[in-house]
Specification:
There is one protein chain. The chain has 109 residues and is α+β, with helices and mostly antiparallel strands. The chain has one domain: 2-Layer Sandwich (Alpha-Beta Plaits), CATH 3.30.70.1490. Helices cover 39% and strands 30% of the residues. It has a five-stranded mixed sheet, covered by helices on one side. Strand 3 and strand 4 form a beta hairpin. The longest helix is centred in the C-terminal third of the chain and has 24 residues. The protein is globular, with a radius of gyration of 14 Å. The chain starts with a strand and ends with a strand. 23% of the residues are buried.
């Protein structure tokens, strides 16, 4: 199972972390893992490629991704908010459809 944690402060996303493998299928053929990975990495890609931001993040082949957005200024954060909230909505839907494979936890700081 992959556990995704969304960290919020005053309702806004200040970071997120995913750990574990969905276990839906074998590595390389797991469509749930692919969908989840895409959802989690898309905001990170837009931060780098569109906004030229370099937030702190860690990603590895063991099913771990962590993104820390606490250092972003308010202007850039506002530009990302829609992308981040869309990511969460997508993960919520995935976790409803595949509750044995994905667990979503939201924490208010």
């Amino acid at each position: 199972m992959t556990v995704v944690k969304i960290f919020r402060k005053n309702g806004s996303i200040i970071g997120y972390r995913a750990n574990g493998h969905t276990g839906y299928s074998e590595s390389g053929t797991d469509i749930i893992c692919a969908a989840l990975s895409t959802a989690l990495q898309l905001p990170l890609l837009s931060m780098h490629e569109i906004l030229n931001l370099s937030p702190k993040f860690v990603i590895n082949d063991d099913g771990f991704l962590e993104v820390d957005l606490k250092t972003l200024d308010n202007e850039n954060f506002k530009k990302l908010e829609l992308s981040l909230e869309t990511m969460v909505l997508f993960i919520k839907e995935l976790s409803k459809q595949y509750p044995k494979n994905i667990k979503l936890v939201e924490k208010e700081d």
